[in-house]
Design goal:
Protein name: NPCBM/NEW2 domain protein
InterPro entries: Galactose-bd-like_sf (IPR008979)
Largest sheet: 8 strands, antiparallel
Structural class: mainly beta
Distance between the termini: 110 Å
Shape: elongated
Number of strands: 75
Keywords: Signal
Organism: Bremerella volcania
Amino acid sequence: MPFRSALFCLLIFACTISSAAYGDEEKRFVAMLEDGRVVEDDVLRNWYSGNAMPQLAGQSLIQGGNPMRWMMDRSLGPAEMPNAYIELFSGDRVPGHPDAYVPEGVEYQADVPEHFLITPSFPFRRSSNSRYRSDIRVRRDFVQKIVWEQMPALIDRHVPATVFLKNGREITFRAIRFSEAGIHLLVDRERMSFGFHEIAELHLDVESPWESHLQELAILFPSGKVEPADQQRLVQWETSDGLVATTSVQRIDADSRGDNNNSDRWVHGIQPAWSLDPIWIECRSTWMRRSWAFDEMPLFRLPFAESRDGAMFSRNGFSARINRGILAGTAKSGDRVSGWSLGVMAPSRLNFDLPPFATAFRTMLGIDQAAHDRGCIRGRVFVSWESSPKFESDAIVGSEKMADAGNVHWNNLPGDGQLILEVDMAHQGRPDGADPFDIRDMANWIEPRIQLDREKLREAINERTPGTILAWNGWQVASNLDKLRFQTTRRRVEYPYESPSWRTTVVAKDEPLRLTTIKKIAPDTAYLEINTAKFDGGDEPNIEVRINDVPVLSEPMKNVNTHDHVNTPAPFLVDLTPFAGNEVTLEISQTPGADNITVDWRGIHFLPTPSFLVPVLDAPSQQQVEGLLTIDGQPSGAKWRNDIRLVSRPALEINDGPWVQIASFDRPIEIRERPLPGQYRQLRFAFQKQGDGYVQIRLLHDRDSESPAIYAVGTTKADKGVIELDPKKIKENDWHQVGPDIFSNFRELNITGIAIQSVGGGKSTWDHFVFSSSAWHYDRLTSISPINNNWDDWQKRSDDLLQWLPKATVQVNRPGKPVRPAILIDQGQGICAMLGDGDWKRDQQVEIVRDDGKKFPAKCLGIDEESHLALLRIENIEQDGQWSQVNLAGGDRFDPQFAFMLIQQDDTPGQITWDISRPITYTKRVEILSESPSLDFQLGAIAIDRNHQIAGFVSGKTPNGEPILTIAHPLSQKRSTLQGN
């Protein structure tokens, strides 16, 4: 009988004997605890909900001081190797068909790494609800092997950087690049491409298994710290379906599909570090669970090289097997099965590169049950830098006895140190009756594991934890990591495109989290979008942004709505146009918050348009507007309006007449009832109508000819089928803002363009077209509403102000300093307000020049160090009727919905330079305003608000010349102190 066939028959016979020996006394579940004690019972208890942990025979299996090393369901057996699967560097395995490759990018506003999509060959969802994903996303950086068609000779083998084609060809490559459905290789100097359908197995090159292991631990145990300490364990599932998946105790959830007391009704949700999605596993299909402390490393997670020099009868094949006996099946030696093992046929020499923090090694050695009472081996454990073995067993005959290597430890591990496990066939000096040579010398290295230095491991994990937050790629953490707390948090959402999953989150408790980068803002980049999430607490912490040390955003975080993403907080948005085309220093902060508030950083993106809003004709150029056509393709006669007193400028003006198409979309705007990210429901626009009549807006779509989607505003006599919106009557030259719910009016649409029309004798001016998934999302735009012109009429207001404002505006000459404007706030005492600087000195003598050119001596008073806003006093001010004063605004924050009048004294006596500016970004105390197209405002220019009061002072400029406005509130708040009272 051939040697392999004979061994196979022996295996069957041994298994039969073993099963008979247990008889009716065997319990269904058996577990080995860390202290070596074995517990067993027919019932597994208490693991049917997320806040409960398993118990067997009254013993806690995961928590406590004596958790399980492994637990097996004897009613099941290990799976055969799947025909198709993805294998991870750690030995984890996902059975199923690998479908596609996806490059790194953004999905639903969140950063995702490059990954593979695999359709599992086992049930993996919590329920049969079809709205959840039908595939699992497996991270590329953890993948070691992709198998479309299993090659038996490669089971438990890894041949780095090699592709095995279905036609039998084997190709070793230097570099690889993936496309959606294939690979592109560099082979020597030749380039080759293959589709996934041509490949049997693809083995990737894992640059450093140890670095991959640290990356895994940094995801599962952020910062290397887990509370309570008894949850610092990993648990590996192996199912009868062929799944092998490892996660941490904190990334386990549980549910019951009926009877809580029946473990066959339980499902467990886990999320390994390599999976972007949770995987739900039926308890009744789980054959083995293995568990170990985070500072241990089962040896099967390290790659190895095997030599079988000297093999005789067994020289053909019989490569080492991971967690199986050499002839497959559960490894068993002595009187028990092994939770994990390396099965070998003597002679065998396994070489493992030791990880840097390895300090010790433990294992046992025995002959596999398939040999029954035969076979004879001797085992040794070496380290490569010592010539003598650290352990050597006596000759072992038969599978009843095992040898314990004890605690093998070492000091001063060299950088290239290796662990060597050697089993020889003990041919010389073997006992009488033992098989000669290598017949039935089937050995198991039982539960081999390496001990790691706990403190060094924690330091390494802590260093790598920030790098696991994909949103921070390209950013540096400027905070002290010891002042931050990272943890793994379950993202509690039930969205159509996302089920609950675990993410690494961060708590900034004692000091802010600060992220910094230096970046050149591309000319076409208009927005910085920051996507974060939290689930608990009030309106804290804040997200703050500074660009070139200028505050541009400070907003509190809102909680995520776990069931309806449409109303969940939209990303934070910063307008970057003041910095576009320039290299800048950016800082993003998460301010300190309560200890229980963890923040999930999902994405930081530089975008031409927001991901959750679609602005149309946003700040159009004159060329864009004048090139617009009618819906029939004729010149439209549209005009570009950029009037100095048009607050929301520039805008678009059309004449009474045909439809004017203002936009077309290569990718249709999808209108849906419950819009996913990238879909929309609402539209907001504003218009002003001259003369009689009304306006119409038309949403062009793929069924436009038979079912047009048209809105009319300002009439009750629209054509049949046209939706009439409020107001039904409009006042000439008033601005109106309208926000229809498109889905409610027209149901699902795929909008390909927008056309507008002025009806009834008179021009109309248009602005502010924005699509959104909900009305709440519009608030993220810092954008003046044109309707504020109706009661905040800057045309009339500026005419009123210019009659007396010059008499309140002065210039200040300080020795050795540039001339700066100031404004009189107290005519009786001669108190003026202005922007100071770091050299401001109380009681310093200065000169003030009035608008008529007359000069007056003055004295510096106090300065607010934070804002640099200062006061000075005109000495012996003349009450000659040539003065006027302006009061300080009392508000402690800006309102971004309103514009300002910026003023400074002109070179021509008796005149001031002025313009209307609107906010671009704001932080409630600092705003960046729109640049005047014709005026250059100097530092210290004064902002007058709609109440004719001093709102703030220009304290700087952006790289593109936009003025930076600092609120005047510190002067109002501290006026008495600054005056010296």
